[in-house]
Each structure stands twice: as C-alpha cells, then as structure tokens.
Design goal:
274 residues, four-stranded antiparallel β-sheet, flat, alpha+beta, 9 helices, three-stranded antiparallel β-sheet, 44% helix
Length: 274
C-alpha cells in the first residue's frame, strides 16, 4: 500500500484497495481469508503485482542491467543472459531483491535454462520458448521461436470439447459454431504473432473432428442419415479458421511486447515466478 500511495492520494480509492486485499477468496463455496498478498486469480492482482515488483525493475535497471535483460509481466518474469556465469549471478541478485520484498521464488517454476542450439526451453506467458533451426533463413544457425505451450493447447481443447459435447446436441450447428468462434478467435489472436502455424493446424483439425462427431450424434447413426461433413463446409457456415492467421514478428511491425523481447539472441535464460 505504501507504493500505491506514492501515486494515489484519494482516500476512497485507497480504502477500496485495502478492502479488496482483505476480502478473501471463495473456494468450493467456502470463503478463505487472505492472510498476506493479493487474492489468487483476483482481477486486481496483476495490477498490484506490477506495482509491487516495479521495485525489482528499478533495481535491475540501476544495478544489474549489465547481467542481462529482465522481461516481466505481473509476477512472472524471465532474465535473458549471454553466459551461464551471468545467469547464475542474475539468479542470486533476483533472490536477494525478492527476499528483501518479502517474496519467495516459486521452487518448481524458477530454473536456469541453456538455450544454445536448442538444448533447452521454457514456458513464459503461455508460450513455449526454444531455439530452432530455420531452413529458410540459415540452416546452420538457431533462432528463438515460440508457440503455444502444451498447457495452453490442453486448455483450449478442453473448452472446445465442452462446447461440442452431447449436452448441446439439441442446438443448431450454427449456434455451436457461434459459441466456438469467440474462443478460437481470442486464443488465436494471442498466439498468432509467434511460430504457431503447426499448433494452429492441429487445433483446426481437432475442432473439425469434434464438430463432425457432434453432427453424427445429432443426426443419428442410421444408414443414409450420416452426411459427409468437410472442414470447408463448416468454414462456409461461419467457423473461424486459425490456419493462415499467423503473423510473424517481422509482419507484426516488430512490437516490443514481453514475448517479442524474449526472442532476442541470448544463450541462457532464468525463468522465475514469485
């Protein structure tokens, strides 16, 4: 709250934020009090995390900039370094600062990764980050690439499965497509600036399979009643197609977002979560 008060003087706003921090969290119908920190999953949690960890940004820019590049979003961050020695020192410095702030790095999500020639990878903001060879650019060199992580793929497939399960068999196919489109479009817009063409094709195939099975259940299994449904036919009915929507960094005006900054040519990465 001291950091919030540096920019906000309205007592009503400060009082509201204090109440928000003490409101607790409801889990399975039971309210659990918040003893410290921000409520997990709360809409204001990313903002407060940004305010609190802005101190880490300041200290890093002032004293540790020579070690590497710090990329942070809320409580999730990555430090990109050119050598293993710098990565180890970066980890030590980050642990020192977070301890002073009363925070603890997540033991399972905080790790050092060697990215040289595609040896390792890590997940940041839902994307798998890894160096891979590019046949078109230069087969002898490795370039940083990113695509949807397995967890991100599983989450969107689960949502598609829910929208095409037997409970919706009484609806019209266009109604199901209308529910699927916002999910596919929103998910695709988030990941389309990376190297996600293969994952997009996989998800398109999965959506088609689910819709085809949904149509079979809807019309029944009797001979002569099952129509042959193609992907193009569903697209003609309004289904959003992910294939062809990928925009590579050069095509996306090279926006300096958190993820695009990670795709710089570094050999070691430090992945951390508070």
């Amino acid at each position: 709250m001291v950091l919030v008060e540096e920019r906000i003087s309205d007592r009503r706003v400060l009082k509201l934020i204090r109440k928000w921090l003490k409101a607790g969290v409801m889990e399975d119908g039971t309210v659990r009090e918040t003893l410290a920190g921000t409520p997990q999953g709360g809409v204001i949690s990313p903002l407060l995390a940004n305010i609190y960890l802005h101190l880490l940004d300041r200290i890093w820019a002032k004293k540790c900039g020579s070690l590497g590049v710090l990329i942070r979003y809320a409580d999730d961050f990555v430090v990109m370094c050119t050598t293993e020695l710098k990565a180890k020192e970066a980890l030590r410095q980050v642990q020192f600062v977070t301890n002073k702030l009363g925070l603890v790095l997540h033991p399972e999500k905080t790790r050092m990764v060697e990215l040289t020639r595609g040896k390792g990878s890590f997940v940041f903001l839902g994307c798998t980050i890894r160096k891979k060879r590019s046949i078109l650019r230069n087969p002898r060199r490795h370039y940083m690439q990113r695509w949807p992580s397995p967890k991100a793929m599983k989450r969107v497939r689960t949502r598609v499965h829910e929208l095409t399960d037997p409970r919706h068999s009484g609806e019209d196919v266009k109604q199901v497509i209308a529910k699927l489109n916002p999910v596919l479009r929103g998910w695709g817009n988030y990941f389309r600036t990376g190297n996600a063409d293969r994952k997009f094709n996989q998800l398109d195939s999965y959506v088609y399979e689910r819709l085809a099975r949904w149509m079979v259940r809807r019309v029944g299994q009797r001979k002569g009643r099952v129509e042959k449904w193609s992907h193009d036919r569903f697209v003609a009915m309004g289904l959003y197609r992910l294939r062809g929507t990928v925009k590579y960094p050069a095509q996306a005006a090279r926006r300096r977002s958190s993820l695009s900054r990670v795709q710089e040519n570094c050999t070691h990465g430090l992945k951390g979560v508070c």
